[in-house]
């Protein structure tokens, strides 16, 4: 087998991150899972290695510890060619409305952390002239809504950052993919009552991400219906939108 | 995470509201097992109420990590929630296949062990349990015991086929079979009636895989007419030259999902009769040998996800018994006559010869097993009571993984081992700790 590009999953503990790791490993890619307390991911590491006969490494990474990021990127060996950021947290909207720290935490985890780290990788990949950066953003970033605008605004920032990065790197051989999953059935959403037809399984997200990487897509909605829903939501005039509860 | 929901088996009958928890680690399981009336559940492929906890149900599907693989002996160690289909996905490309597989790949390892499932090769290789090297079982105190044929042998014997009633199977070591290709050399034979079918099956015992489809609506001289399907793992030299370079790649089957609950009216005597007649004609025309990919051969129904919706919201029930060899023909004749007379033919009537089986609780025993499915309704339940009586008269016994409605007295009369299981559970307190709707109904 030819040596396939190592894939780094930033946020390797999340259901979506693990599903993406499985999908790339199935195709034969070596995997690096980056997360806080990475050593507790040993069972998952083992699982992927046994199933797909690929090497799987664990590495410590904290998306809020921006000072450590240059060292983190520097110590990676082999250096990954496909970088997937699954970093993020839903947070508690109502807590964030009253508590600055809670709001800042959500903003940092969904914008500052992921944007800075993929920015560092973009720099390195641009030097070698190839590679793929995949950012898991959110449909919540397409338009701010009362129920989750703290999270949504941070995701909007990340979406814009990825868009700019794609523009900058387009002629440098580095491809940037923005993923907007819509609802996904994960640990994070386990207690929410989500409509089945709009809710994807983590494996579905992973499959779409894998295909988008192969076919070099730019922006993907995991279930196409979400593209339509968001077009409609974005088309509603602000004077009406502000009175709706969505 | 805990939620209250309607819990049901693959047959979607019965449904019971209950609490379902989905642990992700051994520690999380330990936090749950202390409560009484709990049962572990795999991928929900038992047909009836085997995996509906009497107080709470432990959904093991997140415990689905593989742990190690030894490619000299083909031993896989994995958590109980790993599906057989995951095992095939991971290891068939490397030349390994499960030694024993039931008719669906969507069963968990834990479920396969708890029901000690069988496949088309039972007459040659025995049941799933024969290829389990060891299991780790958690008791109600949260203590984990490794059990095998060499250590904690009692626990091992009670757990293989023990329907989860001895504790929670956490992980297992199973042996896989080396194969040269992902293809099966299939040979189909036609038998015009039951006597001929049994004769043909007896004469082809050397085949690794053997199973028959019975037209259960045929009456009189056609009673028991069957298509017998034999199979062998194809070797490299069995493949056409152009496939030999990629012996493990098979065409991807299109998956379809049965989109809705069929209205009850769709499934009536006429449609079942039509289906059976068409299947018979198609089978008769396609006799002889052919090369079939593993997925189509072992799992024809898996291609239609959620096929259980075919029976509508009311659900369906399976009847599966095994009759000892010397009683097989008489018993099967009586069962098929009763079924055909009731006009309650089933879409899928499967006949299979079991080989000898020597285990504490498992369903198989040397003889013939027949599986039928029917829409769940009052008429069916009355028919099944009559089929139970015929089975008892012929010294047969029943498959708990399929059962949703058997009476405790019938089960205990058919199978004295079940009373041993109950005694053991009463003595050790397991009866209060681990119980399902089924174990309560059947007094296990």
Automatic annotation (TrEMBL), chain A:
- What SUPFAM superfamilies does the record tag this protein with? NAD(P)-binding Rossmann-fold domains
Keyword Oxidoreductase present in the record's keywords: the answer is: yes
Family matches, as InterPro entries: NAD(P)-bd_dom_sf, SDR_fam
Coiled coil residues, start to end: none
Could you give one GO CC term from the UniProt record?
membrane
Top-level taxonomic group? Bacteria
Quick check: keyword Methyltransferase in the entry? no
Q: Which PANTHER family match?
A: DEHYDROGENASE/REDUCTASE SDR FAMILY MEMBER 7B (PTHR44196), DEHYDROGENASE_REDUCTASE SDR FAMILY MEMBER 7B (PTHR44196:SF1)
Family named by the database record: Belongs to the short-chain dehydrogenases/reductases (SDR) family.
What name does the UniProt record give this protein? SDR family oxidoreductase
Q: Which organism is it from?
A: Yoonia ponticola
TrEMBL record, chain B:
**Region (Disordered): which ranges?**
1-23
Annotated GO molecular function terms are: FAD binding; oxidoreductase activity, acting on the CH-OH group of donors, oxygen as acceptor
Which InterPro entries does this chain map to? FAD-bd_PCMH, FAD-bd_PCMH-like_sf, FAD-bd_PCMH_sub2, FAD_lactone_oxidase-like, Oxid_FAD_bind_N
TM region(s), chain numbering: none
Q: Which Pfam families match?
A: FAD_binding_4
Which keywords label this protein?
A: FAD, Flavoprotein
* Claim: Flavoprotein is one of the keywords in the record: yes
- Domain FAD-binding PCMH-type positions: 13-179
Listed PANTHER family: D-ARABINONO-1,4-LACTONE OXIDASE, L-GULONOLACTONE OXIDASE
Please state what the protein is called: FAD/FMN-containing dehydrogenase
What organism is the protein native to? Yoonia ponticola
């Amino acid at each position: 087998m030819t040596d396939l590009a190592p894939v780094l999953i930033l946020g390797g503990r999340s259901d979506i991150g693990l599903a993406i790791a499985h999908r790339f490993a199935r195709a034969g890619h070596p995997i690096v899972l980056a997360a806080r307390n990475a050593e507790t991911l040993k069972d998952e590491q083992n699982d992927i290695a046994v199933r797909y006969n690929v090497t799987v490494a664990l590495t410590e990474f904290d998306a809020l510890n921006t000072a450590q990021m240059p060292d983190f990127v520097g110590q990676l060996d082999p250096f990954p060619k496909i970088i997937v950021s699954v970093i993020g947290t839903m947070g508690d909207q109502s807590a964030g409305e009253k508590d600055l720290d809670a709001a800042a935490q959500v903003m940092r985890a969904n914008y500052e952390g992921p944007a800075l780290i993929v920015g560092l990788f973009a720099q390195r990949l641009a030097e070698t002239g190839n590679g793929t950066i995949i950012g898991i953003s959110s449909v919540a970033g397409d338009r701010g809504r009362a129920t989750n605008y703290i999270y949504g605004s941070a995701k909007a920032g990340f979406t814009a950052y990825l868009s700019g990065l794609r523009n900058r790197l387009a002629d440098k051989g580095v491809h940037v993919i923005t993923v907007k999953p819509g609802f996904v059935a994960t640990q994070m959403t386990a207690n929410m009552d989500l409509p089945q037809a709009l809710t994807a399984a983590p494996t579905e997200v992973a499959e779409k991400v894998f295909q988008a990487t192969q076919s070099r897509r730019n922006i993907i909605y995991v279930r196409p219906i979400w593209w339509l829903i968001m077009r409609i939501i974005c088309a509603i005039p602000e004077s009406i939108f502000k009175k709706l509860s969505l | 995470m805990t939620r209250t929901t309607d819990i049901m088996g693959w047959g979607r009958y019965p449904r019971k509201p209950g609490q379902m928890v989905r642990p992700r680690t051994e520690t999380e399981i330990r936090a749950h097992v202390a409560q009484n009336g709990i049962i572990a559940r795999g991928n929900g492929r038992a047909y009836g109420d085997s995996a509906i906890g009497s107080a709470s149900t432990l959904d093991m599907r997140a415990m689905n990590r593989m742990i190690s693989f030894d490619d000299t002996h083909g031993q896989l160690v994995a958590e109980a929630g790993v599906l057989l289909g995951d095992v095939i996905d991971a290891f068939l490309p490397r030349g390994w296949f499960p030694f024993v597989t039931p008719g669906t790949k969507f069963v968990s390892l834990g479920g396969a062990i708890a029901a000690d499932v069988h496949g088309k090769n039972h007459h040659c290789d025995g049941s799933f349990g024969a290829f389990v090297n060891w299991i780790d079982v958690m008791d109600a105190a949260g203590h984990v015991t490794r059990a095998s044929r060499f250590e904690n042998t009692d626990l091992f014997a009670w757990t293989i086929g023990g329907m989860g009633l001895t504790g929670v199977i956490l992980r297992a070591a199973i042996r896989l079979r080396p194969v040269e290709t992902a293809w099966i050399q299939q040979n189909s034979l036609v038998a015009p009636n039951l006597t001929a079918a049994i004769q043909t099956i007896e004469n082809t015992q050397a085949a690794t895989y053997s199973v028959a489809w019975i037209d259960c609506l045929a009456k009189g001289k056609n009673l028991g007419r069957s298509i017998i399907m034999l199979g062998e793992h194809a070797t490299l030299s069995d493949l056409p030259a152009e496939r030999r370079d990629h012996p493990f790649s098979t065409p991807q089957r299109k998956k379809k999902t049965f989109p809705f609950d069929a209205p009850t009216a769709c499934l009536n005597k006429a449609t079942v009769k039509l289906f059976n007649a068409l299947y018979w004609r198609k089978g008769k025309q396609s006799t002889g040998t052919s090369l079939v990919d593993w997925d189509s051969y072992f799992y024809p129904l898996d291609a239609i996800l959620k096929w259980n919706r075919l029976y509508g919201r009311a659900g369906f029930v399976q009847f599966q018994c095994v009759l000892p060899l010397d009683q097989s023909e008489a018993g099967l004749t009586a069962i098929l006559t009763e079924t055909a007379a009731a006009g309650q033919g089933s879409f899928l009537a499967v006949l299979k010869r079991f080989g000898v089986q020597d285990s504490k609780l498992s369903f198989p025993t040397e003889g013939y097993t027949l599986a039928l499915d029917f829409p769940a309704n009052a008429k069916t339940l009355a028919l099944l009571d009559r089929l139970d009586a015929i089975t008892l008269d012929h010294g047969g016994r029943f498959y708990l993984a399929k059962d949703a409605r058997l009476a405790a007295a019938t089960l205990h009369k058919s199978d004295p081992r079940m009373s041993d299981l109950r005694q053991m559970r009463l003595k050790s307190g397991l009866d209060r700790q681990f119980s399902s709707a089924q174990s309560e109904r059947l007094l296990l």
